[in-house]
Amino acid sequence: MEQTTFTDICGIVASIGLILGYLPQAIQTIRTRNTDGIALPTFLMTAIGGIAFMLQGLLHKPDIIWSLVLTNFITTVCSIIVFGIKIYNDYFKNRG
What's the rounded Cα separation, in Å, for the pair 17 and 11? Predict the structure, then answer.
């Protein structure tokens, strides 16, 4: 097996694993709007890391690493949504 084929397979398997591991928690948080057990810095740093990994995948030469871009796009969008819900919940809880 060629080195690039092996690394592509590793990237795809890693992408699927990360999405399947991360998405259920993000979906549950988005549905229930319950952010009591969530640390705000975690989702902020996850979003920042996801953006950096997307840039790495997009700027990789000679070819874009699509598994890196797609995985981190999905996790970044979810992280930003959960981060927004957490900010909203914390703001209104502390206000009342």
Answer: 10
